[in-house]
Amino acid sequence: MNERAAGRRAFSWCKAFTMWRLHCFILALLACSSAALANSQAITLINGQKSIELSVAELRKSASLEFSLYDPYQAADVEMRGIPFRDFLIEHFGSVPSALYFTAWDDYAVSLSGWDDPDWILVTHENNQPLTLRGRGPLRLVERDYADRDTENLREFNDWLWMIRSIEAKW
Question: Which helix (H) or strand (E) holds 65?
Answer without folding.
Answer: strand 65-71
